[in-house]
Amino acid sequence: MSLIAERLLRIKPSPTIAVSQKARELKAAGRDVIGLGAGEPDFDTPDNIKAAAIAAIQRGDTKYTNPEGTPELKAAVAAKFRRENDLDYTPDQVIVGTGGKQVIYNALMATLNAGDEVIIPAPFWVSYPDMVLLAEGEPVIVPCSQNNGFKLRPEDLEAAITPRTRWIILNSPSNPTGAAYTHDEMKAVTDVLLRHENVWVLTDDMYEHLVYDDFKFVSPAQVEPALKNRTLTMNGVSKAYCMTGWRIGYAAGPVKLIKAMTTIQSQSTSNPSSISQAAAIEALNGPQDFIAAHNAVFKQRRDLVVGLLNQCPGLHCATPEGAFYVYPSCAGVIGKTTPDGKKIQSDGDFVTYLLESVGVAAVQGEAFGLSPYFRISYATATELLEDACARIKRACEALK
Ligand SMILES: Cc1ncc(COP(=O)(O)O)c(C=O)c1O
């Protein structure tokens, strides 16, 4: 008898975490590697947020809290949704989890029966399909081509919906493409969803604050209030507040769903760290001005990386609206041969070649469900990005 449960055979470890780990290992072994695989800001957590955590420890906020989060943090989350997204939620419509990841996981575990379908536009964040599979659901992948800015076309959404569709997962700005939906683009999607009242909307707004060039972020229930009673609006402090290690994510939605998610949380991890929750209150209620300062740096880096990658023979990189990723096409290098005689047959071969030949760690598009592309995170020092792009150019020029 196998030790490992059958449900685990359906899924694999996160490929983005695997790339970051491999880059760290190579570096530790003395190799000169630039890791562009990680999905986290290189900026430190702001001092006022750290101070709130230290104060929480000193105050003795070191005990269990309610499994779904403290009343104070849930109030701060409700106030955030009202202030920033024109969405009114009461505290009992809010849940706080150990990172955005746990919130999404709990929502799927709480609602999917075997065979229920979840529509996932591709390219997608790597964890969505595996979480659906773990919950015994069926991911229904809908490719979103670069011709449409990597965004979902209403007609493709309409065609993907079946009587078994339970959820659609939307993610704007997107990991891995950085693509973000304008109001009109989101409305075109919500118009389709209005006609299918059994389909619920899980919107992952994790990169809400990371948008550039005056782009205006919108969330589905804000664009179409009639969808609010079947939408889970999910967000977190990991990216905008540089708090990836603190593990706080949150969501708001109908009470019935939030209660079901709380039951799962109460029987698995219980509350997220009490200290991190205190820090997250300060993140949401405290000064927000550092976000614009970070964004100015991210925008500069985005423009730098897009410009440099477009000078690499065989690559083409579009300029995304947000997040801190670019998703260049490597169609022009497929079929070419490396200096040591290996044929590049896929984006996976290409990122392996980049790592082995010039020490740049990126993630293959195959992991995100749309090839031939690769993902680069530009949430790293500008000098390293310049160096990495020069290396990628050298590697592309060496292909025959
Ligand atoms: C699109 C998206 N959603 C959710 C998450 C998870 O965030 P957290 O670190 O808060 O669990 C990530 C993290 O990479 C992400 O990119």
User: What are the low-pLDDT stretches, counting only 5+ consecutive residues below 50?
Assistant: none
Distance between the termini: 50 Å
Shape: globular
Q: Mean pLDDT across all residues, rounded?
A: 96
Bound molecules: pyridoxal-5'-phosphate
- Strand elements, count: 12
Structural class given helices, strands, pairing?
alpha/beta
Binned, the helix content reads 40-55%
- Biggest sheet details: 7 strands, mixed
What is the CA-based Rg, rounded? 21 Å
Strand numbers in spatial order across the main sheet:
2-8-7-6-5-3-4
Q: Output the helix-strand order.
A: HHEHHEHEHEHEHEHEEHHHEHEEEH
Strand content: 5-15%
Secondary structure: elements and pairs:
Layout: H1 6-9, H2 15-28, E1 34-35, H3 47-59, H4 71-85, E2 94-97, H5 99-111, E3 117-122, H6 127-134, E4 138-143, H7 154-160, E5 165-171, H8 183-194, E6 200-204, H9 220-223, E7 231-236, E8 249-252, H10 255-266, H11 274-285, H12 289-309, E9 325-326, H13 347-358, E10 360-361, E11 363-364, E12 374-377, H14 382-397
Parallel strand pairs: 1-10, 3-4, 3-5, 5-6, 6-7
Antiparallel strand pairs: 2-8, 7-8, 9-12, 11-12
Helix pairs in contact: 3-11, 4-11, 5-6, 5-10, 7-8, 12-14, 13-14
Bound molecules: pyridoxal-5'-phosphate.
Q: Which features characterize this protein?
A:
12 strands, single chain, globular, 7-stranded mixed β-sheet, binds pyridoxal-5'-phosphate, alpha/beta, 3-stranded antiparallel β-sheet, 400 residues, 41% helix
